[in-house]
């Protein structure tokens, strides 16, 4: 299905581009959220008449997003979770958890703005991308820990506390001596 984009969509196109997308993506996402219009002569003329207003609205939203991005820059949010001795979480940290932590820190975002490429299932410091606008995104550090003391320790050290290698009781390795069953030389 061909659609006219009403805003920039990551990995798809810029405002005003006519792109071919799968029907389900258009019907279930782009059209209901007013991110695109079906490509018809009537919609093309409607878009051209409204283009200046759409670009002005987009610029306003982008400027607001850049202001918020300035506040979010280098932000660390602490998320406390139960975990085993190896640092494996009992469950996982979701985009909702991160959005709630950022909102508690004073900047309101929703879970749809948090971009997670994988499930967060271990303790540690994780960089999280937050998309505030199609053209503005910022990185926030999620500090996943068992308690506040551990979170502060992770933040100061820069890595997960549970990731510290544990010294094992090892006996020093013996120097290798040549054995008598060497097959390389003549017998």
Give the arrangement of secondary structure elements.
Blueprint: E1 2-5, E2 18-20, H1 23-30, E3 36-38, H2 41-72, E4 76-80, E5 88-93, H3 95-104, E6 114-115, E7 120-122, E8 124-133, E9 136-145, H4 148-157
Parallel strand pairs: 4-9
Antiparallel strand pairs: 1-2, 1-3, 5-7, 6-8, 8-9
Describe, in plain words, how this protein is organized in 3D.
With 187 residues, this protein is α+β, with helices and mostly antiparallel strands. Helices cover 32% and strands 25% of the residues. The strands form three sheets. It has a four-stranded mixed sheet with strand order 4-9-8-6. A three-stranded antiparallel sheet has the order 2-1-3, covered by helices on one side. A two-stranded antiparallel ribbon has the order 5-7. The protein starts with a strand and ends in a 30-residue tail after the last helix. 18% of the residues are buried.
């Amino acid at each position: 299905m061909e659609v006219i984009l009403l805003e920039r969509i990551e990995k798809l196109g810029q405002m005003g581009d006519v792109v071919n997308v799968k029907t389900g993506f258009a019907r279930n996402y782009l059209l209901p959220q007013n991110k695109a219009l079906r490509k018809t002569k009537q919609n093309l003329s409607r878009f051209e008449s409204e283009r200046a207003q759409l670009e002005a609205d987009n610029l306003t939203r982008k400027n607001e997003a850049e202001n918020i991005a300035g506040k979010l820059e280098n932000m660390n949010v602490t998320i406390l979770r139960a975990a085993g001795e190896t640092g494996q979480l009992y469950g996982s940290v979701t985009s909702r958890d991160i959005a709630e932590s950022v909102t508690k820190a004073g900047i309101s975002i929703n879970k749809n703005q948090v971009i997670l490429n994988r499930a967060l299932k271990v303790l540690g410091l994780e960089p999280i991308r937050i998309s505030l606008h199609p053209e503005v995104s910022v990185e926030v550090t999620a500090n996943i820990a068992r308690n506040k003391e551990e979170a502060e320790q992770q933040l100061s050290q820069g890595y997960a506390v549970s990731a510290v290698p544990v010294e094992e009781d090892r006996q020093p390795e013996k120097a290798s001596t040549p054995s008598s069953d060497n097959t390389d030389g003549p017998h």
